[in-house]
Specification:
By secondary structure, the chain is of the alpha/beta class. It contains nine helices and ten strands.
Length: 276
């Protein structure tokens, strides 16, 4: 287990937008269980100042239409990576908020990232072609490889901030998703193809989806898949997709008001690219 001093060199990046802006569990507490001293930065479009266990909150205006049904996904995918690029930790790790760290093997993500620069887990769809054809938010466009490369998952993403090629790869990903918004795995493939940089591919144990239930040696669970949640955490565990409905009514009203104000202001402001 890393020392308390060592964990200060690690930062967790979260990004939640729209209706899910305040839903940070189970990822936040799950990660803090293993890295209790690691700072956490949250990117969001709502002022959530005072949220427990969050060290920095970045309230931003994503360069996407708010009436787009994919607004929340595009914004989260973009700012997870913006957070990695802006991090001043030695190793920055971005999580979606429907993940559960299941094993102390999570500690090995640090040396893996230091060695390879950027790490992402394999996608159970395997081929870029399949992910492009059936994945939500895809433009269904294949390049000259005809989608025969390996598809990636985009949670977790880890980054050794001194890695020059990894930084360029992540920067190009941001450009891709801003200029041609698509699902994050497809934008990751396109960034890799454009830069010629291939991140280190973590085995399926690092993001266990419904296709790999019972694989053994599980490290991180994608409990946004109900079958995964029920198999590993039990039938009575909370469905993370419903957590936003558990919020107090007054907090829902405050969040709705803040979003409305932000949307009205956005009408009078030029679109801008995110800080890097």
């Amino acid at each position: 287990m890393p020392s308390k001093k060592g964990t200060k060199k690690i930062e967790l990046v979260l990004a939640q937008f729209g209706e899910k802006a305040g839903v940070l569990e189970p990822s936040l507490s799950s990660f803090k269980k293993y890295f209790p001293n690691a700072p956490v930065t949250l990117y969001t479009d709502v002022n959530l100042e005072g949220t427990p266990n969050i060290d920095k909150i970045r309230v931003v205006s994503p360069p996407f239409r708010r009436d787009d049904t994919r607004y929340g996904w595009h914004s989260s995918n973009l700012y997870k990576v913006v957070g990695l690029l802006e991090s001043r930790a030695e190793v920055a790790i971005a999580f979606d908020c429907d993940m559960v760290v299941f094993s102390k093997d999570i500690y090995t993500l640090v040396p893996l990232t230091r060695r390879f620069g950027v790490c992402l887990p394999a996608n159970p769809r395997n081929l870029v072609r399949i992910d492009t054809e059936v994945g939500a938010g895809s433009d269904r466009i294949l390049d000259e490889t005809r989608g025969c490369g390996l598809a990636l998952n985009t949670t977790p993403i880890s980054f050794f901030i001194e890695h020059r090629l990894g930084r360029e790869f992540l920067r190009v990903f941001c450009d891709e998703i801003i200029n041609r918004p698509v699902r994050a795995p497809l934008a990751m493939w396109r960034a890799s193809w454009k830069t010629g940089f291939a991140p280190y591919i973590l085995p399926f144990q690092w993001c266990v989806c419904k296709e790999h239930i019972g694989i053994g040696n599980e490290i991180i669970l994608h409990v946004g898949h109900e079958k995964v949640r029920r198999h590993y955490l039990g039938p009575h565990s909370m469905d993370v997709s419903l957590t936003s409905k558990k919020l107090p009514r007054f907090l829902k009203l405050v969040r709705r008001l803040m979003r409305t104000i932000n949307e009205r202001l956005t009408l009078f402001l030029p679109r801008r690219t995110p800080r890097r």
